[in-house]
Amino acid sequence: MEQWSFPPRYDADYLPPARSRHWFPQRETMPPGERDAHILERLKLLTRYAWDHSPFYRRKWDEAGFHPDRLRSLEDFESKVPVIAKKDLREAQARVPPFGDYLCVPDAEVHHIHGTSGTTGRPTAFAIGRADWDAIANAHARIMWGMGIRPGDTVFIAAILSLYMGSWGALSGAERLRTKAFPFGAGAPGMTARAAMWLAMTRPAALYATPSFALHLAEVARNEGHDPRSFGLKTMFFSGEPGASIPGVRDRIAAAYGAHVIDCGSMAEMTPFMHVSGTAESDGMLCWQDIVYTEVCDSRTFRRVPYGERGTPVYTHLERTSQPMIRLVSGDLTLWEDGPAPCGRTYPWLPQGIFGRIDDMFTIRGENVYPSEVDAVLNAIDGYGGEHRIVITREGAMDELVIRVEIAPEPAASGADAMRTLHDEAAKQLSRVLGLRSKIEVVAPGTFPRTDFKARRVVDDRDVFRELNARLGA
User: Fold this and answer.
1) Which residue, 2, 6, 1, is CA-closest to 316?
2) Distance (Å, rounded) from C-alpha 8 to C-alpha 290?
3) Whole-number pLDDT of residue 395
């Protein structure tokens, strides 16, 4: 059915009719129950393949009492197949370097090597086989088609081209889609100003980046004398951090460029990472279940939560043969709904995208706070300058939340009254959304550095307070 098999076999010359909304109409719009039956057959093939080729999975499933021959239903898969976590992958690679004993193809078949930065410990190596790289390119081309990108369009890739999988995955899809791929990159000094110049010269149809970079680029472009709307962008698609599904952030990007903003991306380990992605007609993210099977699960039991509830995504590759992830826990938080989505696809849907990592959540005086909630509030306030810092501190017996907010240059020129207005509005809106009082400090435009990659806006100095308190009390 429309080139759906395991291992995957795609026709490299296939393109849908130019006016088709869908790349594979049958796969994308079939009744969910019918698709689930096909997914179960893929899972039977996948688990047997992993059992035969991976000591990692064989050992883990033996311990859990699971065998592929006993897989009879999706309920069996959810209840009997244990989840895996990133730490399991790191331990496997320490045990069997460099790719771990979940590499299921011969080492000679590895085509691309990517990985994590390893700044906080041993990096994780991603080994992608030649056949898998082709399947990733086909999956991303298909999803980018759903975004409205077409052969012949120019796709400007403004993300770091190094270990980071996002830029390479976007490039592979752009090339397979027969676009004019422009792997511009990011990260070098002065590169953002040059990006603005090249965007003005080439006027691409689409741009891929992180949301933080898109906002930074708009600022730099204006300083260089360019109106970001003059670039002519129609589609901007993002991954790497929450933002493109957050109304305030999404609306600021759309207003700056006059383009349609699309959120996509799960985890580098799950490449084709665009398997959760919005479309030209649907906000949030669709779960493209025939590429990666997604369950939204309770974060303690890892059993699926009902539609309409929050949980953590648990992902399973249906097309990867080199390092297949089978029930990998993302550690993110989302809310899912049943399809169909406005674009007519019958996949489950994350209408608000991915909120952020559960680990990023912090608790202040009994209230759970996600950095993305603060982002959403501030980006919707007039006069916000585009950057802020969330400082978690302890001045007395209770944790305190201090939010340092940049004012935009135009209101800043009006002086103290504008700063007071921004202060009061930020305090009111944050109290309403977060359910707690926070201290607001309004600071000058340009106080905080901009980033070409993922923004880091949370500063937790409670550990410093505790250490100092312990010394004073000793």
Assistant:
1) 6
2) 11
3) 60
How far, in Å, CA of 17 to CA of 22, rounded?
A: 9
Q: Given pLDDT bands bounded at 50, 70 and 90, which one contains residue 411?
A: confident
Please state, in angstroms and rounded to a whole number, the distance separating the CA atoms of residues 50 and 56: 9
Q: Are 211 and 245 in contact (CB under 8 A)?
A: no
Dihedral sign computed on CA atoms, order 462, 468, 469, 471: positive
Average pLDDT over residues 39-47: 98
Q: For the chain, what percent of residues have pLDDT higher than 70?
A: 94
User: If we measure between CA atoms, which residue out of 130, 126, 58, 60 comes closest to residue 88?
Assistant: 60
| Mean pLDDT score, 195-223 | 95
- Tokens read off for 366: 């009994």
For residues 387, 390, 391, 396, the Cα torsion angle rounded to the nearest 10 degrees is 130
Q: Is 191 exposed, middle or buried (0-12, 13-18, 19+ CB in 10 A)?
A: middle
Asked if 246 and 372 touch (Cβ cutoff 8 Å), the reply is yes
**AA letter at 310:** R
**303-312, 345-354, 355-364, 380-389: which has the minimum mean pLDDT?**
355-364
Cα(23)–Cα(144) distance, integer angstroms = 10
Cα dihedral 353, 8, 319, 351, rounded to 10, equals: 10
Residues 6+ apart with CB under 8 A from 132: 111, 319, 320, 321, 322
**Beta pairing class for 110-115 and 125-129:** antiparallel
Distance, in Å, from the CA atom of 224 to the CA atom of 215, rounded to the nearest integer, reads: 14
Half-sphere exposure of 437 (CA within 13 A, CB side): 2
The answer to whether 295 and 304 have CB atoms below 8 angstroms apart is yes
Gyration radius of the chain's alpha carbons: 23
CA 391 to chain centre: 24
DSSP letters of 259-311? -EEEEB---GGGSSGGGEE--SS--SEEE-TTTEEEEEE-TTT-PBPPTTSEE
The residue written with tokens 């698709």 in the block is: 35
Cut 0.85: pTM above it? no
